[in-house]
Amino acid sequence: MLSGACGWLASALRGPRVPPFAVARRCLHASGSRRSADKSERTGDPPRAFDPALLEFLVCPLSKKPLRYEASRNELINEELGIAYPIIDGIPNMIPQAARMTHQSKKQEEMEQH
User: Fold this and answer.
1) Which residue segments constitute the domains of the chain, with CATH numbers given?
2) Could you report the per-residue pLDDT of 25-67, keeping only the tens digit for each?
3) CB proximity list for 83: less than 8 A, separation 6 or greater
């Protein structure tokens, strides 16, 4: 189970009152989300490639939904929550605090328009 600032996240996602994207945003902002330096960036070695076959087994740790691989940014994207998990040296960093917000989710955009 998650600990620290996001320890309550799993139970909050189950509740009907708070939309998942709002919980994810709060979690990311509260943790001071930042991307750590890739080992290959520090050493100058070419980064290891991510194996897209892993997408069959990987899901977002927050929403338990499938992820999309974005090769150009080397990230795994959760469209529903609008967050991206970095892939470091070929290994997805699935820790919610390591994720970044990509954009407003579709649900949030709809709510703001009404």
Assistant:
1) 69-107 (2.20.25.10)
2) 666 655 554 444 445 455 676 667 899 999 999 999 999 999 9
3) 24, 28, 60, 62, 77, 96, 99, 100, 101, 102
